[in-house]
């Protein structure tokens, strides 16, 4: 046995899809077991079993409901997009005020001093003096009243 390989940490290896398909084809010929193929190619048996299982899911009838490789890729992409969108939403939540602004303008009109309920109720004016003059002017009565 090759104990020296397993004693130290082994770097993670990446294999191309073409290599995986060729190895799976060797396993499915049924002249050698998965364990024998794994030893001959210096692969882990668990990884090879996973490749064979995924091949069977992708290329055979799938009554178990397991995800195909395409579905797994799509799911991974969608989860990544959801994560990014949630992060963006959280950033936007932090930027906007959590409650309506508490600041209110004090206006003076013919009925006395009070608080304006909405900033939109105060007409736009160029300066503070014009704003006070507009608010102090009597409101026009609707036609036909009085």
Structural notes for this entry:
This protein has 146 residues and is mainly alpha-helical. It has three domains: 14-65, Arc Repressor Mutant, subunit A; 67-96; 106-136, no CATH class. It has helices at residues 3-7, 17-28, 34-40, 45-59, 69-95, 128-136, and strands spanning 106-109, 112-115. Strands 1-2 form a two-stranded antiparallel sheet. A hairpin with a 2-residue loop joins strand 1 (106-109) and strand 2 (112-115). Helix 2 crosses helix 4 (45-59). The longest helix is centred in the middle third of the chain and has 27 residues, at 69-95. It starts with a helix and ends in a 10-residue tail after the last helix. The mean pLDDT is 74.
Task: State the strand order across the main sheet.
Answer: 1-2
How many distinct beta strands? 2
Tell me the domain tally: 3
- What's the helical proportion of residues? 40-55%
Q: Give unreliable regions as ranges.
A: none
Q: What sort of overall outline do the alpha carbons produce when their principal axes are compared?
A: elongated
Say what the CATH topology of the largest domain is: Arc Repressor Mutant, subunit A
Beta-strand level of the residues, as a percent range?
Answer: 5-15%
Assembly state of the chains shown:
single chain
Overall mean pLDDT score? 74
Spatial extent as radius of gyration = 37 Å
How would you characterize the largest beta sheet?
2 strands, antiparallel
End-to-end Cα distance, whole Å, is 109 Å
CATH architecture of the largest domain: Orthogonal Bundle
Number of helix segments?
6
What's the short version?
With 146 residues, the protein is mainly alpha-helical. Helix content is 51%, strand content 5%.
């Amino acid at each position: 046995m090759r104990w020296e390989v397993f004693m130290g940490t082994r770097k993670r290896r990446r294999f191309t899809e073409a290599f995986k398909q060729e190895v799976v084809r060797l396993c499915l010929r049924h002249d050698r077991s998965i364990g024998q193929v794994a030893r001959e190619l210096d692969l882990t048996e668990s990884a090879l079993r996973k490749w064979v299982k995924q091949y069977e899911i992708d290329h055979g009838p799938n009554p178990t409901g397991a995800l195909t490789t395409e579905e797994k890729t799509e799911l991974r992409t969608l989860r990544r997009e959801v994560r990014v969108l949630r992060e963006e939403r959280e950033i936007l939540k932090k930027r906007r005020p959590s409650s309506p602004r508490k600041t209110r303008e004090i206006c003076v009109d013919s009925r006395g001093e009070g608080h304006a309920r909405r900033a939109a109720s105060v007409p736009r004016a160029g300066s503070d003096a014009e704003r006070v003059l507009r608010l102090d002017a009597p409101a026009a009565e609707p036609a036909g009243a009085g």
